[in-house]
């Protein structure tokens, strides 16, 4: 451990010398940050440093606040090759007699943050105490833990590596709000905390920079930000709570690059260990936040709900509450998708409708095109087909949309026999590969509700009362391979799922000169089949983008 | 090469059901798609499949693959080149 001290100084020039001497007598080099003091004070400070060995002054031209000064000092400490930095106030409120205890604890737990918990004497103003208590409660909420008992005491030792990493990634608070923010963020980053009770005095006639209203407003804003930060990290925090594990550094950092995949995996773990209701509770804030922050998702959901509810008999009013339930249903179905891919069937059971026709077609060795939609839990169909073993599947995915999700699926179910084929465009190469598969009696699964990323082979068809664009790929393939085409969809019903098959056509023919009309006819039939399923389970529609303007504005989803 | 070109013309007519056209109507150097014969992207796929089946060649999905479909002459060059490999 290479330890130095970082002491921010603003107008406490007369008291800092004693603090510096105490640090030096403990063998600790000092980085003193001159936080834009007056020229006179700056000169005095430089003099204090010049009279001593191992004291460096970092001069900030303008007063930036305690947080900015600390960050400047910590950066310099990192540049000088220190691994740990001790923070202490310049005004003499901290008990320098406790320095050895801090150092000792840091040596014992070099990866952890050592922080002081103030033990006050009668000199503390009451109003400051209440303010502190409110901050404590907030910090407990932000971390979902009581581990940080005090986040405002400026007497502490930072492990520099995670601290500097945080400073690089985030713009941290620059004033009094720095002390609590860095604590909460270090906690989020997986750092553990060691408390050390230490006596704090408010020196009589002492000069505090705490401005009651302005600083309290700043701190309120900080807590608002941290609260939402906590919601985003909720799965991780709950995971940490339930497992008691706080892997620091690489582990969480790598999840940070990959928040989406990591978040889903953690939610999955919550479900595994705690059950479905804790999962719902954990996922709800995440869904709410996404719903609130992503206006395109919200608008798409409401637009769809307005259409489906006026389309189906007994339709409801598309309220905000219904839209939230829509988003929530998506999150919950995501869980079922993952469970299904891991080979676990949902509690409510699975019924099938009309699959005999498909099995007959497969049994005759003709193969088939299966056109699906981003509705309900399709992965369930894949799992059941594999379990039965009667049908070999080739699943076409539009990579740009689905790559992340498929990565998880493959990890959950590495032994899956289904082949995923990535499609950006229909060309003769792909057609040839698929032709071989279908000729061998296999099925090709392709989404009928997402238009290809490249190559605008689309056709318009009425869907829920307005023209929408649909891809021609599925019908084209069925015509090329001269095989039947089925519609497949898996929706929620009666507490479980229903897997529904429809034969769209035994044979697709696209005579020259009449092709556009024929393609539109098949797309319309597909749209009808889809409408019928959505009328049964409206909240299963998972195209959270402006579907009726698809192609004009490429949007993404899962 | 001329023989192959005739063969390909016949294949185009057969695989795309171009009933009212004979091999002599197809200009060896005229573009097959949009102008010229006026074939569309679906025809391209069907023709691609037919070529692959007949000559055992493998077509890519890339733009380079599409260039071979420019005219019967280019298609013939591509097929003979691919067969020799």
Observed structural traits:
heterodimer, A: 558 residues, 3 domains, seven-stranded mixed sheet, 20 helices, 16 strands, elongated, B: Non-ribosomal Peptide Synthetase Peptidyl Carrier Protein, Chain A
Summary?
With 558 residues, chain A is of the alpha/beta class. Chain A has helices at residues 13-25, 39-50, 66-79, 99-108, 126-143, 160-169, 178-188, 212-232, 234-243, 250-256, 259-274, 276-293, 295-311, 320-341, 355-363, 378-388, 399-412, 428-439, 473-481, 515-536; strands at 3-9, 29-35, 55-60, 84-87, 113-120, 156-159, 193-200, 350-353, 368-372, 393-397, 419-422, 443-447, 458-463, 466-471, 485-493, 496-505.
What do you see in this structure?
The complex is a heterodimer of chains A (about 550) and B (about 80). Chain A has helices at about 15-25, 40-50, 65-80, 100-110, 125-145, 160-170, 180-190, 210-230, 235-245, 250-255, 260-275, 275-295, 295-310, 320-340, 355-365, 380-390, 400-410, 430-440, 475-480, 515-535, and strands at about 5-10, 30-35, 55-60, 85, 115-120, 155-160, 195-200, 350-355, 370, 395, 420, 445, 460-465, 465-470, 485-495, 495-505. With about 550 residues, chain A is an alpha/beta fold. Chain A folds into three domains: about 5-230, Spore Coat Polysaccharide Biosynthesis Protein SpsA, Chain A, CATH 3.90.550; about 235-330, no CATH class; about 350-550. Chain A has a seven-stranded mixed β-sheet with strand order 3-2-1-4-6-5-7, sandwiched between helices. Chain A has a seven-stranded mixed β-sheet with strand order 8-16-15-9-12-10-11, with helices on both faces. Chain A has a two-stranded antiparallel ribbon with strand order 13-14. Chain B has a single domain, classed as Non-ribosomal Peptide Synthetase Peptidyl Carrier Protein, Chain A. Helix content of chain B is about 55%, strand content about 0%. The mean pLDDT of chain B is about 80. Chains A and B meet through helix 18 and helix 19 of A and helix 2 of B.
